[in-house]
Design brief:
- The chain has about 240 residues and is an alpha/beta fold.
- The chain is built from 10 helices and 10 strands.
- It has a 6-stranded mixed sheet, sandwiched between helices. A 4-stranded antiparallel sheet has the order 2-1-4-5, with helices on one face.
- Strand 9 and strand 10 form a beta hairpin.
- The longest helix is centred in the C-terminal third of the chain and has 16 residues, at about 170-185.
- It starts with a strand and ends with a helix.
Length: about 240
């Protein structure tokens, strides 16, 4: 049984069907990526998993437990944490306060300081900016903070939506190196990313979405060599 399973979900925005029977599985400690063009349903899939949207049909299971009926805060509390597109940090709070918000649902207060220290080791730039108001950080620093805040919740699955969006090429490389490092430390990651080549290069498995449906699946390294994927997404 996969750690995270999506079985035939249909998701609507009012009367518009955005997901049309999407199924996928994420095994523990894997990096799985969703690839596809704008409007393919990638971000909608993450929102459905994290409880921001509710499928009209189909089922989402985490560690064998159906997530239907749970609110987004409840899903985060049991271990599925979403780093949304656009970062969505608390811009008026400091870096340190944002990290504290990531640990808001936790009860093991004694361990939070240690986790903060681990975030500083993983994202050294944040250590220099702990007292800085988060809205004044650069785009790359805000992305680091969004990921660190999510990790402060001690998730078992991290949902990452477009982590490299709007970043300079050097920062994009840094972001993907960090994703590899987080995964190497044992984190299971479901990644949505427009930079298909970078995403496929680090993914254990990948799903190509087209118009709300899964069009192609395979190992990340195999899909890089697929002619259809090359033509449509790799240039």
């Amino acid at each position: 049984m996969a750690l995270l399973e999506i079985d035939g979900i249909h998701v609507f925005y009012d009367k518009i069907e955005a997901l049309k029977g999407v199924s996928l599985a994420v095994e523990e400690r894997q990096i799985v990526t969703l690839v596809g063009g704008n409007g393919a349903g990638k971000s909608t899939t993450l929102r459905a998993i994290s409880g921001l949207l509710h499928p009209r049909q189909g089922e989402i299971r985490f560690d064998g437990r159906p997530l239907a009926g749970l609110g987004a805060h409840e899903i985060a509390a049991i271990g599925v944490v979403h780093v949304p597109e656009g970062r969505c940090i608390f811009g008026r709070l400091t870096v340190a306060e944002n990290l504290d918000m990531g640990a808001f649902t936790r009860r093991d207060r004694h361990a939070i300081a240690g986790d903060k220290e681990r975030m500083m080791a993983l994202f050294p730039r944040l250590r220099e900016r702990l007292k800085q108001v988060s809205g004044t950080l650069s785009g790359g620093e805000q992305q680091m903070l969004a990921a660190a805040r999510a990790l402060m919740a001690r998730p078992r699955v991290l949902l990452m939506d477009e982590p490299s969006m709007g970043l300079a090429p050097m920062l994009v490389e840094q972001v993907f190196a960090t994703i590899r490092e987080i995964n190497a430390q044992g984190m299971t990651i479901l990644l949505v990313e427009q930079n298909a080549l970078a995403a496929l290069n680090i993914a254990d498995y990948a799903y190509v979405l087209e118009s709300g449906k899964v069009a192609l699946t395979g190992r990340g390294s195999d899909l890089i060599d697929d002619e259809k994927v090359q033509h449509a997404y790799l240039g």
